[in-house]
Amino acid sequence: MIRLGYACISVNTKNNPNKKTTVAQLNKLEPVARMKKLRQVLQTNFFNLMDLLAYNVEHRIFLYRLPSEFVPLATHSVAAQWDWAKEFSWDFQKAGKFIRKHGIRLTAHPGHFNILNSDKPAVIESTIADFTYHARVFDLLGLDDNSVLVTHVGGVFDDKAASLDRFVSNFERLPDHVKKRLVLENDDTSFTMRDVLELCERLGLPMVLDIHHHTCHSDGENWIDYLPRIIQTWGNRTPKMHISSPKSESEFRAHADNINVEQFIQFASSLADYNVDIILECKNKDDALLTLRRELKKKGIGVEDFAENSQ
DNA sequence: TCGTGTCAAGATCTT
DNA sequence: AAGATCTTGACACGA
After folding, report:
1. Which run of H or of E encompasses A235?
2. Are the beta carbons of A190 and A163 closer than 8 angstroms?
């Protein structure tokens, strides 16, 4: 059984849980007004999250990536004095209860400025801080370890082996509650499916296969040969993958508006033996998901049987 | 209301 | 050593 999900933004609901403010804006304000502004943004994001999750459930979408901006400037010094976890504990509990009740799987993808294998101590520190923030949000929502934090290995720094080793030693520095949620994804320029799989096996971490990245960057491996090992990394957790279609031949790395249905069928047919959650990374977000479902249905293919039948 | 410059953050390639 | 690029939506402000 396959479940489909989308990332961060719904194009069908007007408001999304990704409202933010800027440092420059906050610096214009007095400390009290500053706190008020931050509070206001997070309150809006909670409101929008509940709205969006209700929409998701209505459309039987049980997989969703939470925007990293959910708590505005959470790891920036301008918000350092702000105890958002305490102030919003009621909201976290309420949202968490809804998420658990409906069996929604929430995941996150900390931004690309997070480089755990950096050679700069300050970058490593800010990365640890940002991962910790993401894990804390899931902890406060009371979500299990299927709510993962997806990240890339990072930079190559002219020496891939040394950079992989540095990832391992910096990983050991993460708090346990972050370690249990962190998972690694192959990227489209530096670390291939096999690089990441081997690193995941070394660290005992789950691996997210991004099939689009794999077509952009590999050493010619056939991903199907590696599928059982990739699935194995997830243990008792539900494996998660990413798919997107190339925007065009010339902009192959960029994401298209929708998923090419033939391409999806080809990918998904190899996953028939497994339970897999797949996040669609498309410009059209949730609309791409609903469109893909319609196209599959037209072809009589129930790849997402659970979601279709339990209507 | 609309168009435009700006936004916390890194790595890598180009000049 | 400094600047552009990646990628990217939304905020804030001025017209």
Report:
1. none
2. no
Contact A223, A271 (CB under 8 A): no
Distance of alpha carbon A293 from alpha carbon A307, whole angstroms: 10
Torsion angle (degrees, nearest 10) of CA A8, A12, A15, A21: 50
As a whole number, mean pLDDT of residues A28-42 equals 94
Q: Say how far A261 CA is from B5 C1', in Å.
A: 38
Task: Confirm whether any atom of chain C, the nucleic acid strand, is less than 7 Å from CB of A9.
Answer: yes
Distance A194 CA to B5 C1' (A): 42
pLDDT band at A224 (very low <50, low <70, confident <90, very high): very high
Residue showing tokens 């065009």:
A248
**What tens digit of pLDDT does each residue of A68-79 get?**
999 999 999 999
What pTM does this model have? Answer: 0.95
Cβ pair A74, A84 in contact under 8 A: yes
What percent of chain A shows pLDDT beyond 70?
98
As a rounded value in angstroms, the CA-to-C1' distance for A70 and B2 is 28
Whether the CA torsion A68, A166, A212, A63 is positive or negative: it is negative
Other C-beta atoms lying within 10 Å of the C-beta of residue A31: 9
Torsions phi, psi for A6 (to 5 deg): -140, 170
